[in-house]
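ok so I'm stuck.
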Amino acid sequence: MSVHLAAKKGEIAPVVLMPGDPLRAKFIAENNLENIRLVNSVRNIFFYTGTYKDTTITIGASGMGCPSIGIYSYELYNEFDVECIMRIGTCGAYLDSIPLYTVINTETAYSESTYAGTAFNYREDYFQHQGNAFDIINQTAAALNIPVLSGSIHSGDAFYRVDREMPALAKQNKCLAAEMEAFALFANAKYFNKTAAAILTVSDNIITHQVISTEERERSLTTMTQLALEAACRIHEAL
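replied:
not stuck anymore, here's the structure
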């Protein structure tokens, strides 16, 4: 039992899928896992452990932003012997050519966040995916005939900004989309020499202003979910 997770050792699987929203974690677990057990509900951050095709997987929420996923991923890596965390979240596309529901496999996360510098004295403004999960996700997508974009994303600290233009860091590095968590997850994985990936579904387009509903964010991200679950099985086999 850690400061923020009430699960006991052994109740969290080596591979964890992390949506931001606790209700999305609940929906995915209840509709895809067998023999599920609620192993954490502290602060209503739900974590469920169950089996998918005989592979034990945990699905748990990260909350929003680098500080929140920073806490949970740190404790998972450090106190629960988790080997791989795969963020499964939503993002806003920076290009009008990227339609809603596009799936992105994150290669590099850029950010102005001070998280990594404060936590580990890392001075980089970007971190790449860690370990072999990124490649396994691409291989799994190809096997399932799921179209996936691979590239850089921008992990912003601010959801609302006075300046509505694409941030300079995102523009300079040709980021495909904006989200708020992958940078901290990748930094933690680097620090602990663990595996981390981030699969994102485009839930809105910052240029065209198209957007999917709140209910759709919670319940309709089935392509990303299928890809993540199938990739998790392969990652588990590779551990």
